[in-house]
Write a structure and sequence with these properties.
Blueprint: H1 5-12, H2 16-33, E1 50-55, E2 61-70, H3 74-90, E3 95-96, E4 109-116, E5 119-128, E6 133-142
Antiparallel strand pairs: 1-2, 2-6, 3-4, 4-5, 5-6
Helix pairs in contact: 1-3, 2-3
Length: 143
């Protein structure tokens, strides 16, 4: 795990990096709207730890990207904030959804949710004290 300073700079600095990340978000939402018909997309986002595509027993497909940081490292919150700034700007027609307050986590947890058509986009920031990690997630769910 390393501080994702490169990602933070690429996301925050206007110009090509901003356009690349906007394009990546637009592409991911478009692929989700087509039910990921071509399978798992290539990793489109910069410096992400991992991205995986899965399907549950109800048929819902989830594309989940994870960034790992040292416990409470400022970079985790910065990536979370930047993702939440990019989504409304880069994904046309996206609506903010109410906060999910039914989550019970022993460590800190923040969640933001958006929807465009049948795709629900979530960003979350989770502190995991036992693991000495803070995780930032980007998740796209489509049924």
């Amino acid at each position: 795990m390393k501080l994702r300073a490169g990602l933070i700079c690429l996301l925050l600095i206007p110009g090509p990096a901003f356009a690349d990340n906007c394009a990546a978000l637009k592409t991911l939402v478009g692929l989700a709207q087509s039910d990921f018909a071509d399978g798992k997309p290539d990793d489109l986002l910069r410096e992400v730890e991992s991205c995986d595509l899965s399907r549950d027993e109800t048929g819902m497909q989830t594309y989940l990207c994870t960034w790992k940081f040292h416990y409470r490292a400022p970079g985790a919150a910065a990536v979370f904030d930047v993702l939440n700034r990019l989504i409304p700007v880069c994904v046309r027609g996206v609506k903010s959804l109410p906060e999910d307050t039914d989550v019970n986590h022993p460590d800190s947890y923040e969640l933001r949710r958006y929807q465009r058509g049948k795709v629900v986009i979530s960003t979350s920031l989770k502190d995991k004290a036992e693991l000495e990690q803070t995780l930032t997630f980007l998740r796209l769910d489509v049924k």
